[in-house]
Design goal:
By secondary structure, the chain is mostly helical. About 85% of the residues lie in helices and about 0% in strands.
Length: about 70
């Protein structure tokens, strides 16, 4: 795969985390080792994106509902 193709896959995996999961599932059944590596990294990007979106959501909830921590 070319670098541009990898960048596009990683970019869409980060922006739309379900895309990263789908790419990972497709790459699991592929025999090409390079594509399996790209799929694994896409899964990592998707997981990082999900965690970041979850953290932002929790912080927004805390800020806008005036919950006092400790």
């Amino acid at each position: 795969m070319r670098k541009l193709e990898k960048f596009i896959i990683y970019f869409f995996s980060f922006i739309f985390f379900p895309a990263g999961l789908i790419i990972w599932l497709v790459s699991m059944f592929n025999q090409n080792q390079e594509f399996k590596s790209v799929g694994r990294k896409a899964l990592y990007f998707a997981a990082a994106s999900f965690c970041l979106q979850l953290l932002i959501g929790v912080l927004n909830f805390i800020v806008y509902t005036n919950i006092k921590l400790a």
